[in-house]
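Hi R.,

As promised on Friday, here is the backbone we talked about, encoded as structure tokens. Could you run it through your design pipeline when you get a chance and send me back a sequence?
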């Protein structure tokens, strides 16, 4: 585990105004939060602050107001959900980010142990520009800065990066848990490490694949992106989704993997249908006998057993992307089967399993095992950039703090 950043254990929170960068960018319908997962994750940090009479002052973006005040993106709608999840009253401060004097008065007059939500940080153009002047105004509202929004850590914004250099800074409990889990995934993992990467397009995951082949012992490639590799190797993929113009790139990745001694595991058989719809008639094909009119919508039973065997030899698994068209039964079979196998190995203490990315979280939820992995990241873009080996400005700022 990197020890370059502080945690709540390193700070004296007693009676302090704590600026807590949260991710309150949650789905809202008819004025109510419909999924409070991201709020749930910051509750432990909020409770630690208020139990020692600190004030938890929440900073967050919400939607894309493009640097202007836009009432439909006001964070006021999220305040009742913050109160519900923390079991503590929460107040709202309609901050004008061009002049924070009124916000400062409201914070100073709030009693110790208050939970306060400031207005959307993106109501000012300086947020996304990482403007040092806006960061100074933000910093003037608190004594300490805590970042608990890993999902925004890949953005160098005023509330995630510049502000962390102006106040004593630390990771909150959710950020700490995420960084610990990621360290177990690729930083200092239990070996051998296997990565499972699925999804539709190679073009969106070139950086990811090129980074992983230098970090893992085996790489399973599934989803429609596997078709691009199969095509590059001279196999017929029928009418399946494939980026055939990327055949040279796919072959280059295979050559680099070979040089790095990373075993690439591609499908050896497929579940093939002739219509892209749920419960479409289908059958299994070996990839040496593909129907030229068919579409590969999932890997086949032989591939499932091969992937399970590779997982059984691994100490750590990192997963991003489904193996097939998991939204359409029965083409969710391989993703479900492998997810449950990973969950069982994890439960038995034989595997550290870290997964993330939008479709991945949905697929593991669909398989009923989202809570059975070592860690499932809901961070989306930040998780992918971490997997690609890119620096995360919001984390790096804490390491300096």
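Update: got your reply. Pasting your designed sequence below so it's all in one thread:
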């Amino acid at each position: 585990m990197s020890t370059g950043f502080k945690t709540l254990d390193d700070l004296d929170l007693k009676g302090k105004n704590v600026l807590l960068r949260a991710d309150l960018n949650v789905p809202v319908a008819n004025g109510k939060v419909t999924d409070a997962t991201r709020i749930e994750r910051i509750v432990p940090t909020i409770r630690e602050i208020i139990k020692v009479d600190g004030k938890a002052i929440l900073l967050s973006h919400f939607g894309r107001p493009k640097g202007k005040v836009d009432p439909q993106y006001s964070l006021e709608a999220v305040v009742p959900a913050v109160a519900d999840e923390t079991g503590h009253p929460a107040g709202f401060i309609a901050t004008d980010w061009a002049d924070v004097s009124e916000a400062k008065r409201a914070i100073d007059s709030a009693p110790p142990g208050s939970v306060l939500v400031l207005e959307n940080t993106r109501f000012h153009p300086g947020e996304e520009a990482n403007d040092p002047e806006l960061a100074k105004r933000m910093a003037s509202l608190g004594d300490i800065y805590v970042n608990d929004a890993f999902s925004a850590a890949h953005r160098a914004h005023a509330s995630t990066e510049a502000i962390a250099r102006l106040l004593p800074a630390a990771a909150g409990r959710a950020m700490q848990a995420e960084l610990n889990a990621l360290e177990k995934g690729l930083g200092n993992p239990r070996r051998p490490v296997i990565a499972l990467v699925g999804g539709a397009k190679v073009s969106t995951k070139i950086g990811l694949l090129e980074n992983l082949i230098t970090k893992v012992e085996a790489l399973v490639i599934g989803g429609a992106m596997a078709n691009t590799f199969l095509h590059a190797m001279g196999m017929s993929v029928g009418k399946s989704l494939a980026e055939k113009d990327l055949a040279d790139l796919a072959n280059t990745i295979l050559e680099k993997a070979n040089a790095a001694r990373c075993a690439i595991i591609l499908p050896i058989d497929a579940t093939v249908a002739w219509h892209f719809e749920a419960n479409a008639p289908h059958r299994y094909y070996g990839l040496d006998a593909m129907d030229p009119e068919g579409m590969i919508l999932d890997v086949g039973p032989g591939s499932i057993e091969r992937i399970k065997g590779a997982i059984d030899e691994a100490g750590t698994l990192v997963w991003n992307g489904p193996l097939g068209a998991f939204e359409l039964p029965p083409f969710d079979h391989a993703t479900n089967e492998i997810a449950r196998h990973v969950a069982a190995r994890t439960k038995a203490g034989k595997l550290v399993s870290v997964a993330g990315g939008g479709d991945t979280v949905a697929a593991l939820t669909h398989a009923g095992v989202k809570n059975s992995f070592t860690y499932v990241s809901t961070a989306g873009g930040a998780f992918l950039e971490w997997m690609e080996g890119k620096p995360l400005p919001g984390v790096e700022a804490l390491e300096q703090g």
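One thing I noticed while checking it: The chain has two domains: 8-172, 189-387.

Thanks again,
M.
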